[in-house]
Amino acid sequence: MRAGVPAVSREPRTAIATVCLSGALEDKLPAAAAAGFDGVEIFEPDLVASPMPPGEVRLRCADLGLSIDLYQPFRDLDSTDPERFAANLRRAEHKFGVMEALGTDTVLVCSSVAPDAVADVDLLAEQLHAVAERAAARGLRIAYEALAWGRHVDTYDRSWEAVRRADHPALGLCVDSFHILSRGSDPAAIADIPGEKLFFLQLADAPHLSMDVLQWSRHHRLFPGQGAFDLPAFLEPVLRAGYAGPLSLEVFNDVFRQADPARAAVDAHRSLLALAEATAARGQGADPVAEPAPELRGHAFVELSADESLAPVLAALGFARTGLHRTKPVERWEQGGARILVNRSGGQVAVAALAVESADPTGAARRATRLSAPRLPRERGPAEADLAAVTAPDGTAVFFCRTGAEQDWTGDFVPTGETAPGIGVTGIDHVGLAQPFDHFDEAALFYRTVLGLEPAATAEFAAPFGLVRSRAVVDAQRRVRLALTVSLLRRGEWAPGVSEPQYVALAVDDVLAAARSARAAGAPLLAVPDNYYADLDARLALSKDRLTAYRDLGVLHEETPEGAYLQVCTEVLGGRVFLALVQRIGDHDGYGWTDAPVRMAAHRRRRLAREHVRTRL
């Protein structure tokens, strides 16, 4: 394919279960349609709670361009009690009437969890055949699914054995990634099931958790790409078997079911496009839905909104103000390969924008648009670079640059001629961004899909004000690194820690030399308590001179078998942002999260001390 020419894609059909989204049915359907879904699964409780009769729901979906691909769930069909099974058949006939009014031909029947569930596979097949016969008489189909916690049928191979023995054309399988992968089942054998018997596919990701599988399922499912399941490896045998239906999401998640349904639907649809792309790379399914993410070559710049307090700190850290924007109140500060833009238009000190060096900024922007990343409207003066930018879930602007090439952004700045000796900063190691609670998983998926980053380190640590979850996303060469964090529960505002802290980690080759120079120049380095160094001495047996230097400069030292990560942090600037000098030794690939509680407590202590001084004055 010629460079710069978009790939022609053949997209898979996509669907979403209404249970994935917050709100009532009248909120969920337009959200799904606006996000780009082709169809929906109608979750029965959503229909029961809706004032719209089934026929009106059918017309509403048609107006929105949505097909109704599945009605679900029908629970506890089979029974060892003949009278109860007869009652279940009557219940099924009623649901078939609802389906006819909805205009959908497939109902999901879950394996039973009831005490009277059928254990004998031949009796189960007989009962499934009976309900399939009734469905077929009305032009309908039964998709039978093994719940991971089913009483007797809890794996897909058991559900397939029952369907195979029932041998009815109106009876097939629904395969669900969560129910299969949560039990550790190997999905490879799905490829041996006849494609015409795979009636429906439901997809969900999830983190690896050690807990009751029902609670895991009901509260912690995620959209594809947000968890730990290998969904491309799951989807590959399903498609190889000949499955031709939609890729459909069924995700139970406490956060998603309270979030803005329009936003959650966009995130959900993006996850399916990315999954289809990853599966196509394995040789199955539709062509990629977007051109591949261009190679990233580093951080072009980080833009900080700031007041007058930031410039002296940058100067003390060895940065020089090398340029002034031609039309905007923005300054360019540089040292080594690190560039920080200071936007003086007002507001709290915060990370306003990230810019990545891209091998193809135009292609990166096209991919971002294709994956529903909102384009950032920008005012551009005459002869200024036309930089493509999108907005991340937390509101941070993300720019795609190619410094020194066409549309070089550096030309937007008038050189000042200022220089500085520097303190040894070589570049931007990574950027740390705290995420709003509702958007953490969305942010991780955004950066993975839009920028082509991959998940790296993850951690949870007990911070002074609650549990914090961290996740890093990086490019393959570790030239672009982002560290995302979120407080898992935030209640109460008594002397809180830094609200949603952000930071820029500056790479140095010698953190002790850099910190000494910074402190001598007046940089407000963070003081670390002696107890930390007593513990560090006990754990690592560092030399007396090194430990003294650490204590004097506030160095935090994280060590693993692969190497070490040394950092010195400034105080929080403007209430939210701090800068860090970091040195990686050996193959250490972490982000100092072991020491994060110490750093967070020290930041809070310093903030409270400043507030005390202000109140006394």
TrEMBL record:
InterPro entries: DSD (IPR043700), Glyas_Bleomycin-R_OHBP_Dase (IPR029068), Glyas_Fos-R_dOase_dom (IPR004360), IolE/XylAMocC-like (IPR050312), VOC_core (IPR037523), Xyl_isomerase-like_sf (IPR036237), Xyl_isomerase-like_TIM-brl (IPR013022)
Alphabetical UniProt keywords: Isomerase, Lyase, Metal-binding
Catalysed reactions listed for this entry: 3-dehydroshikimate = 3,4-dihydroxybenzoate + H2O
Top-level taxon of the source organism: Bacteria
MF GO annotations: isomerase activity
Pfam families: AP_endonuc_2, Glyoxalase
Annotated binding of a divalent metal cation, by residue: E145, D176, Q202, E250
Keyword Lyase: yes
Residue ranges occupied by any VOC domain in the UniProt entry: 427-571
Known EC number: 4.2.1.118
SUPFAM superfamilies: Glyoxalase/Bleomycin resistance protein/Dihydroxybiphenyl dioxygenase (SSF54593), Xylose isomerase-like (SSF51658)
Keyword Isomerase: yes
PROSITE patterns assigned to the protein according to its UniProt record, in alphabetical order: VOC
Cofactor(s) required for function per UniProt: a divalent metal cation
Gene3D superfamilies linked: 2,3-Dihydroxybiphenyl 1,2-Dioxygenase, domain 1, Divalent-metal-dependent TIM barrel enzymes
Family designation: Belongs to the bacterial two-domain DSD family.
Stated role: Catalyzes the conversion of 3-dehydroshikimate to protocatechuate (3,4-dihydroxybenzoate), a common intermediate of quinate and shikimate degradation pathways.
Protein name, entry field: 3-dehydroshikimate dehydratase
Organism of origin: Pseudonocardia yuanmonensis
Lineage, top ranks: Bacteria, Bacillati, Actinomycetota, Actinomycetes, Pseudonocardiales
